[in-house]
Structures are given as C-alpha cells and as structure tokens.
What we know:
Elements: H1 19-35, E1 39-40, E2 46-48, H2 49-56, H3 61-66, E3 68-71, E4 77-80, H4 85-94, E5 103-112, E6 124-133, H5 138-155, E7 161-166, H6 170-186, H7 193-201, H8 215-219, H9 230-245, E8 250-252, E9 264-271, E10 280-286, H10 290-293, E11 301-307, H11 308-318, E12 329-333, H12 336-352, E13 358-360, H13 367-377, E14 381-385, H14 387-392, E15 394-399, E16 407-410, H15 414-424
Helix pairs in contact: 1-5, 1-11, 5-9
The structure holds one RNA strand.
Amino acid sequence: MNKKITGIRGMSDLLPDETPLWQFVEGVLRRIAAGYGYREFRVPVVERSELFKRSIGEVTDIVEKEMYTFEDRNGESLTLRPEGTAGIVRAAIENGLLHNQKQKLWYTGPMFRYEKPQKGRYRQFHQFDVEVFGYDGPDIDAELILMTARMWQELGIKDVELQLNSLGTPASRTAYRDRLVEYFAAHRDSLDDENRDRLHRNPLRLLDSKLPEMQPLIAAAPQLTDSLDTVSAEHFAGLQELLTAAGVVFSLNPRLVRGLDYYTRTVFEWVTDKLGAQGAVCAGGRYDGLVEQLGGRPTPAIGWAMGLERLIEMVKLAETPVPAGNPDVYLVAVGEAAGRQALLLAEDLRTALPQYGIEVNAGGGSFKSQFKRADKSGARLAVILGADELANEQAGLKNLRHETEQQTVAWQDLIAAIDGELTTD
RNA sequence: GUGGGUGUAGCUCAGCUGGUAGAGCCCUGGAUUGUGAUUCCAGUCGUCGCGGGUUCGAGUCCCGUCUCCCACCCCA
C-alpha cells in the first residue's frame, strides 16, 4: 500500500451523516433571508491580496499573520478570502450594483484563515453573511438584527445574547483613539509587551484583552460612548428604540470594538458561553466608509456574518429535530430478472411520485440482507419483487414502521397503493 | 506563534511493572428452503500515527516529528 495522503490541518471533511444537519441549517437561513427580500450574491473565493489589506486593515491579525497568500503563475499576489465583506463590496462596485441603487444581499461559503485550530475555530470555516448597501437609517440596522433573532428561533437556539455598541464616525473614532492612547500611555508600565505594541498599532484592541491583570485598567479606561458624535448617538438611540419595541433583549457593551478596521457606528455580536472560548456566533456592524475606500461612491453599508460551524454546534446542543433525508421507499428485488424489473419499476414510480425518495436495492443479496438494508435506509415502505411476484406482475408492499400486514398489489395499482400508504402514514 | 493533553480494527475503547494484539458496535453469513429493527452462533477487519534509539525482545521505555483535542492569542 502507498503512503496515505492526509487532509490539511484545520480543514475538515463533512461526512454524509452530518450533511443533513448542515442542509437543514443552511435551508433555514436561506429561506429567512429570501423572505426579508434579500438576494443571493456569489463571488470567487480568491481575490487580489491588496483588497483585503485595504479593507480589513494592514495592522490587523488577519492580514498580518492569518491569510493564505500566494503568487499565481503571473506573479500576482492572490489570497484565499479570510472573510466575505471585502469581496462582496468589490464585486458590487465592479458590477454597478451600487450605482444609484440600494442592495440587500446574502451569501455563504468557505473562508480561510491560517490559525491554530481550536474548538469553533478552523482554517477552512463557513459563513453565512448578509450585506446591505445604500441604507443610512437605524431601521435597517434593526431589520438585520431582527432577522438573526428569527433565525435563532427557527433553529431552536436559545443560549445566545445580543451585545451592542457604536463606534461612531471615523472622526469621532479617531478622537476616541487618541484619548485611549493617552490613557494607556500613562499606564505604560502595567502593560505587557504585546499590549504595549498594540498601543500604537491598534489601540482599540486593548479593550478586548482577556489578561486578568488588565481588567481594572480597562474598566477605568475612557468610554467610547462618551466620545460619540451626535449623529451617531442619535442613530444608536434610534436602533435601541426599535429593538426594544420589537421585544429584542440586548445589552450595551462599550468595549465591543470588533477586530476589523472598516467598522463604523453600529456594531453588534451574538455571543454564547456554550461553545468554549469562541463565544461569537454572529457578528457585524456598519461599514459606511468601505465602499468609498475601495473605489466606489460614498455608500452607507451594514452587514453581519454567522460562523456556520459554531451555529451547527448550537443547533446540536439545542437538539432541534432535523429532517433526516431518508428515502421513503426501498425496492427489494431478489434474483437477476427481478433486479432488472425493479430498476424499470422504480423509474416509473419516480416519474409518477416525484415527491418521494425511492431507492432500489443494488448489488443483489438474499431477502434477509436486502430487508436489513431497507430498514437501515430509513425508508418507511418496502416494495418487494421476487420470482413469484415477477411471474404474476405483482409486488409486495410492506410498511417497515408499523405492524400492519403485508399487501400484494398488481403493478398497475402500485403507484396509488404507495401514495396511499405514505400519505396515511 | 506559545502551552497542556492525545494517537491501538471503519467507530468507541481495553492492553498491569517491556515477552510480536483484544472487547463492544458496524459489516458478512447462518439459526428460520422468500422478509428488517430483538435473541443466539460463526466469520472478516490492524505495517499499535510516522521516524529513530535502548533491549535478546517495544503497543508498552527514551528522543524527534506529525495529527487531533483544549487553552492563550485572534475571531465567525
């Protein structure tokens, strides 16, 4: 035997036993997004490296040490997308979707970050994202959050909590940044090397530090909310009012700053304590300056992203019932002639009853072994074809989930009999 | 990148102080000459993560390396 080739670290295979759960979750998200009037957008997983540097920010961890960046055969620097927003903004500008238009969009797919794998954190992971362009008021901020709340409800997820903050405009954010640098610089001695480094590179991130000895310092730091400009403050108040009216419970977290540079004004996170150290299940916010920064006209924008792996874990914990994806009918056919006939019969059944899944036994086997497979397939009904049935142009019909007596049905009556049995079931 | 744990059959795991591997599940066949999910019987499945070292002898001890898990960091 040759040496095994293994998969890539942090990139997992999704086995057939797990895909029904994924399909269920993705289906709920798609349906709800479409129901709110959002349309799907699909863009490539590879973009020019420059795109992410300019949008996410040069000094963020993502850009500095987590990107899968490589040169293609032309010597161009390309990067596997570490997040989705940048590519969507690029493509929306490039295709004219933002030219005197508003857009409500969603998309889903794999993202790539070179991190050390951990619970809820992988090198290839999947997101479901929503992005909105051209809406300035807090009503759309509220709608985005209401949409996520509905998603939790339909997925059966309970242990999540909404945290809100406002980062203000770029100008008020810069003003706050300066105050913060001043404050922490005065306490320089109590910072470790890493945080001292951050002080100049990305001071807002200091507020996120989990170091226990940092906590008193952070608690006493100037609050971003106090530096907020009036327009942002009004917007933020408007959002809170709408959420309260809609019955959405939230808490204000003045230290919620987000790790990507492009966020402005509203930011929010749905967090949980059920997933180990990775608490954010869904996060997002406004990025009013990004479109312009990437070469488009000034356009207000807001979006959020859900981590599907984390979402799936939450759905598992909630034990939400998931449709199994079994066939409804399993054709048992013993003998070569019966096997041939079963294949044809099954095609007729599929044409007449497209709403049902119909699996035909393949690979032969005794009645006993074929019934075992029928049971394992999860089918509710077995259609039986042996030499006797073949000779009489009949089939046996057995309900595998109830103790009812097996029927014998003529081929021309089979469609009606199966339909009857499955609908009364 | 740093730290802790881990790796034995397809899966879940046992294997005491070194003497060339075992259980349950799964799968296959049978008990029942054409009927599953229960029961009973039988059978298949392993370069013991990989490489090196110590030893007469290594799944077991030592070193290296990789995987997976968890935490730091960071984030969805």
